[in-house]
Structure formats: C-alpha cells, structure tokens
Amino acid sequence: DAGVTQSPTHLIKTRGQQVTLRCSPKSGHDTVSWYQQALGQGPQFIFQYYEEEERQRGNFPDRFSGHQYPNYSSELNVNALLLGDSALYLCASSLVGRGKEKLFFGSGTQLSVL
Amino acid sequence: DAKTTQPPSMDCAEGRAANLPCNHSTISGNEYVYWYRQIHSQGPQYIIHGLKNNETNEMASLIITEDRKSSTLILPHATLRDTAVYYCIVTVHGSGNTGKLIFGQGTTLQVKP
Predict the structure, then answer these.
(1) Fewer CB within 10 Å, N or C, chain A?
(2) Which residues of A touch B51 (CB under 8 A)?
C-alpha cells in the first residue's frame, strides 16, 4: 500500500515564475492538506481539499491555489514566486470520519526560488 | 500561533526512556493532544493522540495530567532512529479539522549512543 506520494522531490525556479506541485494521497483517503515548512520552522497549514473543494485555508495569499481531482489527488499552485516561497512543501492525506483523525504526510517537495 | 509550549531540545541515552514534556494550559475541553515527529528530510509522522486518558500504542505512551494542562510523551526504549523533532499539537476533531494542524517549533530529541 503506497503512502502519500509527492512530485517532484526537488524544484528550482526563479522569481516571478509559477510552479505546480503534485500529491497522491494514501490509498482510501479522501482529504488532502498542504503545508509549507521553512527551514528550521514547523510546518504551516496552507489549505485543505475535500470533495474537490477548498474547505479550510491558512494565512496564505491568493498566489497559493490548489485543486483536487475526482481520484482525490491534488495540486498546489504558486504564482509570481518570491524568494520567501523557498521551502519544503508537504502534502498530507486523511480520511474524514470518526476514529480516523490522523494525518499521513508525504516526504515533500523542496522548492528553491532564485 | 501554536497553543503548546515545548523545550527546544533534549538529549537521551540510547536504550533509556525519553520523556518529552508539553504544556497546553489553554486547552479546551474538546481539544485532543496529538504528537507527531519529523525525522530529517521526511514528512511528519503520527505517533499518538489522546483526550484525557493515558494512551499507549506500539510507538509510545501519552500521559495527560488530570487538569489536562500538560502532557508527556514517553518513548520507552529510545534508539538512534528516534532522533527527530517532536511536535505536540492540540486540535479539535470534526469534519475539516483533521487536516488543519498548528505546529510549533517542537522539541529536537537527540538520542546518543
């Protein structure tokens, strides 16, 4: 049973460019959450997708957007990249329902903005 | 902001128990205590969670004080592979809440031979 998979593992972009990161949730999971982790910091919640809709959002600008597909996979898009967007981007999946309240994280995509 | 306070770092000898404290003095009655850990270059990994009773699983034990204002994660026999950043998080259950966790700085546990 594959866990949460993210692609690519590493990415280098320049300021002003746009980037798309991808996530496949753990088999059977229907909810995907995205986190940004700056160096030396804990992960920060970006947003969560369930039933192909954004359900919750953290304190991130509109440059950060996402999508969830019918097969539950998800994308994170960041427009107009800034140097400060350099971070590890983590995807986590879960299953809505009582007794299933824990997240499974992928290994992340390391984004470097030059 | 995170609703928990943890020491920034701790050391533990290999084979000994590692006791990681967490303060959550403003915890609400419907908030659970969760512990995750993050080994270098990996995503966080779920360890254990509880509401008010002590909990144990194959990885660790969670001891929550009676007033629920603090808790301790216990790794009974720490190994070098337990070296990681440990995060204590409080959160409510319910639709939409599972995915939104507020991480603090965590405790960096260094297990030494």
Answers:
(1) N
(2) none
